Structures are given as structure tokens and as C-alpha cells.
Amino acid sequence: MSEIPWRAKWTQDQIRVLLLEQFETFRQVDTGIPRTRLAAVEQATSLPHAIVISGLRRVGKSTLLAQMARRLGQDQFYYLNFEDERFLGFQAEDANTVYQLLVELFGERKIFVVDEIQNVGGWESFVRRFMDMGFKFYITGSNASLLSRELGSRLTGRYVPIELFPFSFVEFLRFRNYEIPDPARMTTTDKGLLRRYLDEYLRLGGIPESLKYPDLPLLRILYDDVIYRDIAVRYNIEAINALKELAFYLVSNPASLISYNKLKQQLGLGSINTVKNYVEYLENSWLFFTVNVYAYSVKRQQIAPKKVYCIDTGLANSIGFTFSPNTGKFLENLVFLALRRNTKEIYYYVTPSGYEVDFYLPETRQIFQVTQNIEHPATREREIRALSEAMRTLGLAHGTILTDANLDPIAGDDLTIEIRSLAEWLTGIS
Fold this sequence. Notes:
Blueprint: H1 6-9, H2 12-27, H3 38-43, E1 50-54, H4 61-72, E2 77-81, H5 95-106, E3 111-115, H6 123-132, E4 136-141, H7 144-154, E5 159-163, H8 169-175, H9 188-204, H10 208-212, H11 218-233, H12 240-251, E6 256-258, H13 260-267, H14 272-284, E7 288-291, H15 298-303, E8 306-310, H16 313-319, H17 327-340, E9 347-350, E10 356-361, E11 366-370, H18 377-394, E12 398-403, E13 407-412, E14 415-421, H19 422-426
Helix pairs in contact: 2-5, 9-16, 13-14
């Protein structure tokens, strides 16, 4: 028996109510603090391209759209939210029915604001068709793989991708109504407050809704939604326990090296391909990122262990399990997220002597080492030795250690290592 088409399930009056309710709800969204990525959205406004905002569930994509919509004016756009269960079964061929009713309700407009478009089968077809008719699209989605693959094949050269992450440290400070002091005039009190806020940010993370309602178990709900709805259902995974065990292992070990073969053995998963697929699904749903070692050999990059980072330290703190505080790893995770907001090309580096350096960015020729503090002589020597050898091997004159306080730079042998307060460094990177 064939499934009943979406438009046959509802009367036109019911669809009108749906569209009116969605628009009114969106119009009343609390827009919160201005997101840093709003500037990137505004820059693309004058282009004919679709603007696609992707990111984790509950990360603030709809709020960012609402902030942009306020700038456009509420009489300039149509709004659709495909996360609404009343749109279940909606297909691209239903777009004309909805468009006709939108014109009837709101008049003729040339902008579509669309939430969670990945829930619509064949969505790229109707977006492309309406773009050909001169419409502008602002779109959100929670599945990175779906968006990148379908956009690449269907909207080539006609979209601007914008990734939205949880609050950066700067956004977290704005959310806490803390005015960032001038770095050149920072007092001892300022430095102490900044480090206190960094500790809080490290523990709570940057998921807006979780920060707004700290007494609710929203991070657990978010995590479960991603595992069950965004991955298990979408990819038809029956071995849900294996997926859960893998996700739990990764969220409990942020900023750690992983090997597909070792994960297969540790967790008793069926095959290396199963592990690879599950990790890919977790990445596509924005829970984790993996980073390759930097090497001139692509084969070595592929077979060497990868480092894994969580989308949010608050999520890792809430869901993961450790025997002891994992502050150093969480600080490294924060630095990764700060760098990743601005570039995708991030690697870790292993020197010829086997010393590991946390981050190398070949595009900008920047290299970073992250450590909780370098007060102990052995720690200081280890971090400087690893960074110095990496700099010499890569032909870099400048490197940075991010730690708990600013210290005098280390200079010699045509190398300069800057030692920066991580809290202060984070206030200068969006």
C-alpha cells in the first residue's frame, strides 16, 4: 500500500494554521546575545546564493536565523520549520502547495527562512527551483554530511556554507554580562575574574539553552536525541548498544588519540568498517571532530591514529566518565574549537623524535601547544622541547604555548616561543 501524500493528510485550513503558528512562534523567538556568526550571514545577504547554517542540535541556529530575520524585517520573508511533526512526510513536490498558501496568507515575498531542511526528502530540488525564480534562502540543518553532499551535487556554486558552534568564550562572557577588559590595561582582578569565567566555561560549555536553564538535564536530552534520532534512525542502525558504547568512549576521552582497530577490539565491534562508519555518523551529526596527524604522505595521515574532540566541553563533562579531573584535555578541546571556528585545516604533529604537538595550521603556518600550566620545570622543558623541534622541522620561526598565565617569550636559535594566557587568548579569537 502506497503512503498517503503529505498534502492529502491535511486540509488547506489546517496547513494555513500550521504556517501561521510557525511564523508567529518564530517572530517571538528570544534572540538572546548577538552571535559572532551573524556578521558572516549579513555579508552574504546581498548575494543570490542560498545561505546554509549547519551545526549541532540546540546550538542556536534558529536563534541566529531570528537575529537575521529581525534585520530583514518581518514582512520580508516566509518561515518554515521542518522539525515540526506536522511536516512529517513532506516532500519537495509539496512545495507548490505550501507556497500558494504562504502567498495567500502573507502576500508576495522573495525570501524563505527554513529550519531543519534535512528532514525533507529531495529538499535541494525545490530550493534550486525557487532560486531559479529569484528567491533567496536562509537554511539551517543539523546533519553536516547530508548538507555538504547534497549541496555539492545540487547547488554547486550557489550556496554559502556557515557553520555554527556552541558559544565561544567571548559569547559566553557576553551571555554572563561580563565586559571584556582592554588586554593592555588588565588588572590583577580582571585576570582573576577571567580565569574564573574560563573555569566555568570549561565546566558548563557553550550550549545556549543549557546555560539558560541549568537545572534541566538538557545536555543529556540533546545527546540522546543525536544518538537515537540523528544517527540510529537516520542510518537504520540496529546495533544501538554498540553505537552508544562507542559514543560514550569518545565523549569520555576528549583530546585523545584513537585507533579504529583498537576501538574495534576494546568495544567488541564487528569490524573496522563498522567503527569507521559509526565515527563518521557521530562527526556528521556534529558531536565529534577527528584530526589527522600532519604528514606529507596522505597514506600516513589515513593510517595513523586520529585525535578526537567533542563539540562542547559541557557536554563531555555531563555525559562522559573519568576517574580524575581531565582539565588539561578539556583545555586542549577548547583550543581546538576556537581554531576550528575559523578553519577546517587543523592537524596534530609528531616530530622525528616522537614528540607530539597539539595543533598545526599549515594554511597560516601557526603551531600551538596547550598545557594547564608550566610551573614545574619538567613540564616546561617537555613542552618547549616538543614545540622547538616541531618548529625547526617545519621551518617555523614562531610558536605559541597556551597556558594559565602570560610569561616572557622564549627566544633563541632564530626561534621565538610566545607563552600566552589561554583565557586572554580566547578573548581575542571569535
